[in-house]
């Protein structure tokens, strides 16, 4: 296994709008990030993944870029950016930027020209089609509801947008467009950044016939995903990107790939593929999805979570590499999603962190996860900001597919704004995030849950994450050891081993608020055991043959 820094790193994701506001306008900014660089150093992370800070009208909070080489006014200036990059590098922290090139903003100069006329030289930098029988060219549904095709009166054609109509898809079939993207990527790498997280990168190659998708019961639009996920030329494009850009620098890359399987992930991340280092898969995040996607908010089973995680651990064990995450700016807070954000918030947050960070792959920590921030429950839909949530609320309630109460309950459980309420720094007003009025309200529990309180409590979730990160640095078995699941049918305990040569680790996690007996499966040979980390105080010399696991208890043993 070729040992490389990006396999041995821990990444911290910053959603700049909600991280730290330095000028009192209620919006997080780059100077605010720089002011918190020592905090990140203290946590011990190696890389920052910075969600987009580029010029944008913020239809999708920066995932709709109108200039790839300019900083959004809300966030500051390019000088602020250079200062932040330098502050990170001075502390040995690398910076991974968010590359959003499946689509741009409709306010990007390229699109303005492309839309201006059918024979504009940039017309085919985007995907334009005439209508079919007076309707959209195909029946696909957009991620933010409605058709993926928006009609343009001026040129009597439709353009494709898999997300909002202000996010027109770029046409990757066009070599001139691809060349322009590579030029922009090189420009950022020449500035000294250390890599990219690539937004829905497995969507950039489409089936250019745009065939209709299957229409589910009661739905108006069809499922186009078989025709835009992992498309026909995706590996050709990524190998070209690697040749033209990535191979020239010592980068870290991760491709966000909704719908990817472990088998396909080997093609994206295999060491001889010359494409990407790793991908973000979504199978564990989709547990509980139903006919209305995540808004169905069905219950999930631990055995299903174990199946999914094991498929990915084993699938990429020989070649390829896993990313490891529970949270990001699109997902609910893991302590609310898979843990217990009430009486066992601290124990379950630590247990979930243990379960993930002891696996094989590069762990990603989302801002606030390290202090156990929870989901939020705003009283009114008017307090929410996320386009995906607002569009879904409008469509599902207006079409009586869900009641307002059902929709609010689903937003509480699965909405993206759960991750976007401001970082809670202290118990002052607005959690110390801003001295102004925050662009979205702070979670009301900021007085109990905040960084200042965590730093003053040796038993806090923060210091537990710090220990996990340190453990990874000290134990090659955590990075490179093989994973083997134990007790696969147990609905309470998630247990597995990691093996690297003679070294063997045993990880035991109780995912429930009920105590439960762990019995070491036969066949696990050992002479002695050394406790590496646990979220409860454990008496010396306790046997590991059978353990009464407390609510949400986690333990990691080194077996000798
Ligand atoms: O998300 C891709 C994506 O699939 C999202 O629709 C996400 O899975 C979904 O919102 C979860 O419910 C990326 C970015 O992470 C997201 O913030 C952007 O809105 C989207 O692409 C478009 O750029
Ligand atoms: Ca600000």
From TrEMBL:
GO terms for cellular component: cytoplasm. Residues 13-420 form the Glycosyl hydrolase family 13 catalytic domain. GO terms for molecular function: alpha-amylase activity; oligo-1,6-glucosidase activity. Its EC number is 3.2.1.10. It comes from the Bacteria. One of its GO terms (biological process) is oligosaccharide catabolic process. It catalyses: Hydrolysis of (1->6)-alpha-D-glucosidic linkages in some oligosaccharides produced from starch and glycogen by alpha-amylase, and in isomaltose. The keyword Cytoplasm applies. Keywords: Cytoplasm, Glycosidase, Hydrolase. SUPFAM superfamilies: (Trans)glycosidases, Glycosyl hydrolase domain. It is an enzyme of class 3 (hydrolase). The keyword Cytoplasm applies. This is oligo-1,6-glucosidase. It comes from Falsibacillus pallidus.
């Amino acid at each position: 296994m070729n040992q490389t820094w990006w396999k041995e790193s821990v990444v911290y994701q910053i959603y700049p709008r909600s991280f730290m506001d330095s000028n009192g306008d209620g919006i997080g900014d780059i100077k605010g990030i720089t002011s918190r660089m020592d905090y990140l150093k203290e946590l011990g992370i190696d890389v920052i993944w910075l969600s987009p800070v580029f010029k944008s009208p913020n239809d999708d909070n920066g995932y709709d870029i109108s200039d790839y080489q300019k900083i959004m006014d809300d966030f500051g200036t390019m000088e602020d950016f250079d200062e932040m990059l330098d502050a990170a590098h001075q502390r040995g922290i690398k910076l991974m930027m968010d590359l959003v090139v499946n689509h741009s903003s409709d306010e990007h100069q390229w699109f303005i020209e492309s839309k201006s006329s059918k024979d504009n030289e940039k017309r085919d930098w985007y995907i334009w089609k005439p209508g079919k029988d007076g309707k959209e060219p195909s029946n696909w549904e957009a991620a933010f509801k409605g058709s993926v095709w928006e009609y343009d009166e001026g040129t009597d054609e439709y353009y494709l947008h898999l997300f909002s109509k202000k996010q027109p898809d770029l046409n990757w079939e066009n070599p001139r467009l691809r060349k322009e993207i590579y030029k922009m990527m090189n420009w950022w790498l020449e500035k000294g950044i250390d890599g990219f997280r690539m937004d829905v990168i497995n969507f950039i190659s489409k089936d250019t016939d745009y065939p209709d998708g299957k229409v589910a019961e009661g739905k108006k639009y069809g499922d186009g995903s078989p025709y835009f996920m992992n498309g026909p030329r995706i590996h050709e494009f990524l190998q070209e990107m690697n040749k033209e850009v990535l191979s020239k620098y010592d980068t870290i890359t991760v491709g966000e790939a909704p719908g990817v399987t472990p088998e396909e992930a080997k093609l994206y991340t295999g060491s001889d593929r010359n494409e990407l280092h790793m991908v973000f898969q979504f199978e564990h995040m989709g547990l509980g999805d139903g006919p209305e996607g995540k808004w169905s908010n069905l219950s999930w089973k631990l055995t299903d979570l174990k199946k999914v995680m094991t498929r990915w651990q084993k699938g990429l064990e020989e070649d390829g590499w896993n990313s490891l995450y529970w949270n990001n700016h699109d997902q609910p807070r893991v302590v609310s999603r898979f843990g217990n954000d009430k009486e066992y918030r601290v124990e379950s947050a630590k247990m979930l962190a243990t379960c993930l960070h002891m696996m094989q792959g590069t762990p990603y920590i989302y801002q606030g996860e390290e202090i156990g921030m929870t989901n939020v429950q705003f009283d009114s839909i008017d307090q929410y900001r996320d386009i995906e949530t607002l569009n879904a609320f409008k469509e599902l309630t207006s079409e009586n597919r869900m009641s307002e109460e059902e929709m609010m309950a689903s937003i509480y459980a699965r909405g993206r704004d759960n991750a976007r309420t401001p970082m809670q720094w202290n118990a002052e007003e607005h959690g110390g995030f801003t001295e102004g009025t925050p662009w979205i309200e702070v979670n009301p529990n900021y007085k109990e849950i905040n960084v200042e309180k965590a730093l003053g409590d040796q038993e806090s979730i923060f210091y537990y994450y710090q220990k996990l990160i340190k453990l990874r640095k000290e134990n090659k078995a955590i990075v490179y050891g093989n994973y083997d699941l134990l007790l696969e049918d147990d609905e309470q305990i998630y247990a597995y081993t990691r093996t690297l040569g003679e070294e063997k680790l045993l990880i035991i996690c109780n995912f429930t608020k009920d105590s439960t007996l762990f019995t070491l499966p036969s066949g696990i040979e050992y002479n002695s055991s050394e406790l590496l980390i646990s979220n409860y105080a454990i008496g010396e010399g306790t046997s590991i043959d059978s353990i009464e696991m407390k609510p949400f208890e986690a333990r990691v043993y080194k077996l000798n």
